[in-house]
Write a structure and sequence with these properties.
By secondary structure, this protein is mainly beta. The protein is 13% helix and 35% strand.
């Protein structure tokens, strides 16, 4: 039998009001109805019907009076000078085994969770069992928003399911900070790409071969400073792409007229690799994977070609370029590791590589309403592609799902385990966590062209026209 806090010393009327909301009352009422129906067989059942309804509350009230002693204060309760108890009313929990078995499960999928194991972003899924008591002792059904699950008196808590564990993991993730601020960068040159390394150091590239850096390999904040003024070949060619190795020990930059360079983060020394494989096309993007000294480098150009480079202990070699699609200009490329990566073109096509850029396979899209701008990935079967109509297309390994983020072109997109960030041509920044896409409070005065976030989420930076830099710490 469930335990009820009758507070019998308050009198029978308050007790009966609480009793009328209990499961015992429900059973008694059912019994009265059943015996009342049987009066058509014999009038004697009327006595049983009346007894089944009247006897339980009277018996419970008398039993709890006797268990209270005098019906007044209970042991351990303090009584004030006015003779009333100053104890806090405890919430009674009335739980039955059948409640636990039939407790509802509320589930919601907000839509950015991926279909494969790299990341599943979901709304909290809470299993409620039994019922939770209110302050006046009335048992009420527990809601899906309950922070805790209370088990019934006859059983323990149910073992959490895999979905519940996933939800709990995401619920424990800290919400991304909204404290974005405009940074006074030492340039008014348009910045076209940015990379935030694992240590939190930042590298941005732009017009005239400019390379800026903030922070260092030891993770210190550091002021923004100029690393290169006129590119790796000192030719003043615009740079369009930057990416770093794991741990951020080496940084690669690429741009117009075949400009390619590698910078050592600790020493600041750079090496010029311009015109790799004798190609002097304009490189529109670069992706890097691997640790320093064992690096895979992929370069993309406006002719739809991907050039693969391998850097090992000071020696850099380049393979023959491959063309994943029909020759349409490639607009974005990203590597999750030394094997898996994606690139997209301006003809609604997205290509996947599983051999570090040696070959590519088309995986979509084909029906995008806008032109694809950029992409981000965490692994195979995980790709988010931004478009110039304000839509992000999410790939889950077999299907594509569009998500409306804004109205302007989403020029930059970045991704880590717990969130995704996008920026648009109107200077607006959007963050995507478990609760969905949200526009941040701050916006840039100029169009933003790229965004990057550290793997741990400690630092995120967006860059754009006229040397605009917006940072989240």
């Amino acid at each position: 039998m469930a335990t009820h806090d009758s507070r019998s010393g308050d009198g029978f009327a308050p007790f009966f009001r609480r009793y009328a909301k209990s499961w015992v009352h429900a059973v008694a009422a059912a019994g009265m109805t059943a015996f009342g129906t049987l009066t058509i067989v014999h009038r004697g059942f009327a006595v049983l019907a009346l007894a089944s309804y009247v006897v339980p509350p009277v018996a419970l009230y008398l039993w709890q009076l006797s268990s209270d002693g005098t019906g007044g204060d209970r042991t351990g309760e303090r009584t004030g000078s006015d003779g009333t108890s100053d104890r806090a009313d405890a919430a009674a929990t009335d739980t039955r085994a059948t409640d636990a078995e039939t407790a509802p499960r509320e589930q919601a999928d907000t839509g950015v969770g991926l279909e494969t194991g790299s990341e599943t972003e979901i709304a909290d899924r809470t299993v409620t069992e039994g019922s939770a008591g209110t302050a006046d002792g009335t048992a009420t059904a527990a809601t899906p928003d309950s922070a805790e699950t209370e088990a019934g008196s006859g059983g323990g808590s149910a073992a959490p399911s895999e979905d519940d564990e996933t939800a709990a993991e995401h619920a424990s993730e800290p919400a991304p900070s909204r404290d974005w601020r405009l940074v006074d960068a030492p340039t008014e040159t348009t910045l076209r790409d940015v990379s935030v390394t694992e240590t939190g150091a930042v590298y941005a590239v732009g017009g005239g071969g400019l390379v800026l850096a903030a922070g260092s390999s030891d993770g210190s904040d550091g002021d923004w400073s100029t690393v290169l003024e006129d590119g790796p070949a000192a030719a003043g060619e615009d740079l369009a792409g930057v990416d770093a190795t794991a741990a951020g020990e080496a940084v690669w930059v690429a741009g117009d007229s075949g400009s390619v360079g590698r910078l050592e983060a600790e020493t600041g020394i750079h090496t010029d690799y311009t015109a790799p494989a004798d190609i002097t096309d304009n490189w529109v993007g670069v992706a890097v994977a691997g640790t320093s000294g064992d690096e895979t480098v992929l370069l993309i150009n406006g002719s739809g070609a991907v050039l693969r480079g391998r850097y090992r202990d000071g020696d850099c070699s380049w393979a023959e370029p491959v063309t994943p699609g029909s020759g349409s200009s490639l607009s974005g490329i990203a590597l999750a590791d030394a094997s898996v990566g994606y690139c997209c073109d301006t003809n609604d096509s997205v290509f996947e590589t599983t051999d570090g850029g040696e070959s590519f396979e088309r995986v979509g899209l084909g029906d995008a309403s806008g032109t694809l701008e950029n992409l981000a990935t965490l692994g195979r079967g995980d790709c988010l592609v931004s478009a110039d109509d304000g839509i992000v297309h999410r790939y889950g390994g077999s299907t594509w799902t569009p998500e409306r983020v804004g109205e302007e072109a989403l020029c930059g997109i970045a991704r880590r385990e717990a969130e995704t960030i996008a920026c648009d041509a109107d200077g607006v920044i959007y963050e995507r966590a478990a609760t969905g896409w949200e526009q941040v409070d701050a916006s840039a005065p100029e169009p933003l062209m790229a965004v990057s976030v550290s793997p741990g989420g400690d630092r995120a930076v967006a860059v754009g026209e006229d040397g605009t830099v917006v940072e989240r710490r």
